Amino acid sequence: MIPTRYLVRNADVDDIATVTQLLQASYPILMKSAYDSAMLAPALELMTRANPKLLSSGTYYLAESEDGTVVGCGGWTRESPGGGTAVEGIGHIRHFGTHPGWTRKGIGRAIFRRCEEDARASGIREFECYSSLNAECFYSALGFERIGVLDIQIGPEVSLTSCHMHYRFRDETERQFLADKEHSEDRNGAV
Ligand SMILES: CC(C)(COP(=O)(O)OP(=O)(O)OC[C@H]1O[C@@H](n2cnc3c(N)ncnc32)[C@H](O)[C@@H]1OP(=O)(O)O)[C@@H](O)C(=O)NCCC(=O)NCCS
Predict the structure, then answer these.
(1) Which of 116, 138, 165, 187 has the CB geometry, 3.0–4.6 Å to 144, for a possible disulfide?
(2) How far apart are the CA of 108 and the centre of ligand 1, in A?
């Protein structure tokens, strides 16, 4: 039987090969609708390598299926992806990916919820994110707002057009309202 359930756990450096494997399975397939190959191919060379510093940060997470297969990844850091100075209260969303066979099952959302929970406990109140163009709909569904579209330098002579997005942490009342809204939309959709 094909497993369909998963758990979210902290990553560590021992997961490096597994995460690289996941990124290599995910990004080329799921990003190709949004980019031409001249821009995507050199970017993928860099983006599909797991980042050991992220894996050992304590704030990078994996979704693991019942049979132990890693099917999703993502996390957050205080530093921006380019290594800029940390700003009090602001966190940066990093390196999200779901296996193409596991998309639209809530894995990205579950990892994001874990990011939000841990970041909130560490005093973070806003997230920023440089989203791939294909993932803008995902971050919008989580409550992010678009700041603008720009080319991000991801390596020497390698850039990727990305969407700069912002997320403001909600207080308990707002969170309850949004959860109820999501629930009622799900119910209406099912009728
Ligand atoms: C973006 C990505 C991580 C989303 O992962 P996922 O596990 O499929 O996301 P979820 O199932 O949690 O989706 C949550 C919501 O986001 C929205 N969403 C996700 N993917 C979407 C898509 N392709 N089109 C429209 N909406 C989408 C939906 O509202 C979805 O809820 P629903 O399925 O109940 O309608 C995944 O598509 C991916 O790995 N993409 C390639 C890598 C990438 O671009 N990563 C981002 C780098 S910044």
Answers:
(1) 165
(2) 6
